[in-house]
């Protein structure tokens, strides 16, 4: 069967990891702008990499350092996007997933009118994309919450943030109604309990009951997602709104029924944020979990109506690796993954950052998600971080990356042949950028090499890797030629 003829091949980036220009054209500070590079912490120690305190935030606010806070500089996509889009076009991109930085439009999140310079920037960016026949897929919240809202309201823990997010989204819908058809509400919405500050602006050491606060923040994001889905459909006829899940595919560590149960429970909690956005209601098993954990979510009857009446149109997800679970963690060798620490599968290789490589897991994930939700799917993040070497001739021989993608594409196509309705695929990331968790440049994902090191030194010149031409061929043949 193969992929649909209008399959959306492309790549995915986030504003906070590429744009830079952190204090240009009226932009305000976001939570990403205070994320520091921690060279003295093991890159596999995820918990320490993402930890943040009020003292850390205060120090960052007083600093203008772009070495310690790499997301402030990114790769200067803000000024270089015509060059980067031209390279994406050369590869044959049909689409590019990107985000709109909330603080470019509303610097503190509480302004009553949008920043016109911010709107003009994205208007120009979208115009260039359409000139190159690259369809935008826009994420409205991709770890870029205004820092002012985190400090004043403890982020999404406060219900008042819902209306502020609505205002931001409606400003985007009205400004870009002729530019953008596909919208995503929250990036990896399930991540609130893994990195509450990055995902929801919650400052852990200023929070009395963290678990309670995290799930309250979830609820506020669910309501906000439903409200902006409704607004998008009303403002942009024919628009499509999707949710975005971190697909943390988990297997039992053994055939011991207790391991099977442990894995089932972990997968249930991973699915639940997408369940709410797709089905418009909380799963009964999750409500039971709340009761057992004494988690009391403040929600109104109107909230439940909004959720039920405004489900998303399609489901998107990130997939990087799989892990295993056991009823007894002493049975596991722990390793890191995409914003988590979990059991390492002894049957699978790992990257330099400890992430397992599991192409078959992508096919399993597609089958699980389509069977569960029966809505069109899109893979909007998938890739591997590696330490690439730039030769004196400005080449990067990354056969390991080609091998990774080839294996994943083979499994993706098998899932489509099995009946999965898949709209598209966007790699993370098509160009090297500042890594989300470790704030490194040396953890490289792209088909395009950016000459910048972990401290921001380098020319910022762009160079095509070997994988560039390979992906170009894959797109040109719509996945028929993976050799």
Automatic annotation (TrEMBL):
Pfam families: Glyco_hydro_1. PANTHER family: 6-PHOSPHO-BETA-GLUCOSIDASE ASCB-RELATED, GLYCOSYL HYDROLASE. It comes from Lactiplantibacillus pentosus. InterPro entries: GH, GH_1_N_CS, Glyco_hydro_1. The keyword Hydrolase applies. Keywords: Glycosidase, Hydrolase. This is Beta-glucosidase. Belongs to the glycosyl hydrolase 1 family.
């Amino acid at each position: 069967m193969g992929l649909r003829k209008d399959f959306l091949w492309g790549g995915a980036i986030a504003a906070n990891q590429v744009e830079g220009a952190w204090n240009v054209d009226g932009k305000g500070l976001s939570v990403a702008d205070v994320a520091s590079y921690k060279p003295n912490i093991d890159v596999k120690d995820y918990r320490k990499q993402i930890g943040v305190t009020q003292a850390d935030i205060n120090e960052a606010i007083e600093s203008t350092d772009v070495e310690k806070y790499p997301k402030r500089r990114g790769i200067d996509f803000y000024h270089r996007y015509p060059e980067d889009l031209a390279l994406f076009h050369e590869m044959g991109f049909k689409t590019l997933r990107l985000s709109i930085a909330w603080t470019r439009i509303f610097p503190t999140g509480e302004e009553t009118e949008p920043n016109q310079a911010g709107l003009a920037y994205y208007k120009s960016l979208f115009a260039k994309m359409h000139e190159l026949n690259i369809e935008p897929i826009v994420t409205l919240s991709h770890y870029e919450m205004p820092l002012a809202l985190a400090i004043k309201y403890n982020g999404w823990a406060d219900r008042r943030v819902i209306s502020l997010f609505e205002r931001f989204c409606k400003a985007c819908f009205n400004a870009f109604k002729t530019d953008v058809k596909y919208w995503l509400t929250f990036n990896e919405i399930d991540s609130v309990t893994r990195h509450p500050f990055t995902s929801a602006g919650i400052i852990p050491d200023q929070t009395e009951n963290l678990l309670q606060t995290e799930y309250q923040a979830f609820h506020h994001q669910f309501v906000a997602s439903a409200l902006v889905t409704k607004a998008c459909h009303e403002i942009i006829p024919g628009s499509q709104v999707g949710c975005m899940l971190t697909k943390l595919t988990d297997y039992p560590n053994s055939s011991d029924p207790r391991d099977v149960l442990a894995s089932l429970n972990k997968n249930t909690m991973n699915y639940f944020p997408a369940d709410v956005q797709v089905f418009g209601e909380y799963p009964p098993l999750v409500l039971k979990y709340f009761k057992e954990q004494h988690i009391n979510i403040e929600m109104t009857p109107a909230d439940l109506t909004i959720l039920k009446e405004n489900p998303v149109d399609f489901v998107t997800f990130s997939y990087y690796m799989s892990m295993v679970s056991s009823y007894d963690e002493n049975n596991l060798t722990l390793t890191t993954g995409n914003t988590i620490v979990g059991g390492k599968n002894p049957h699978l290789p790992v990257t330099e950052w400890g992430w397992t490589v599991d192409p078959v897991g992508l096919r399993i994930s597609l089958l699980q998600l389509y069977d569960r939700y029966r809505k069109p799917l899109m893979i909007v993040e998938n890739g591997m971080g590696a330490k690439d070497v730039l030769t004196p001739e400005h080449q990067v021989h990354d056969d390991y990356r080609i091998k990774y993608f080839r294996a994943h594409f083979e499994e993706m196509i098998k899932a489509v042949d099995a009946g999965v309705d898949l709209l598209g695929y966007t790699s993370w990331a098509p160009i090297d950028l500042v890594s989300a968790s470790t704030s490194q440049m040396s953890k490289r994902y792209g088909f395009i090499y950016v000459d910048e090191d972990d401290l921001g030194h380098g020319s910022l010149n762009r160079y095509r890797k070997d994988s560039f031409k390979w992906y170009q061929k894959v797109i040109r043949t719509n996945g028929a030629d993976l050799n």
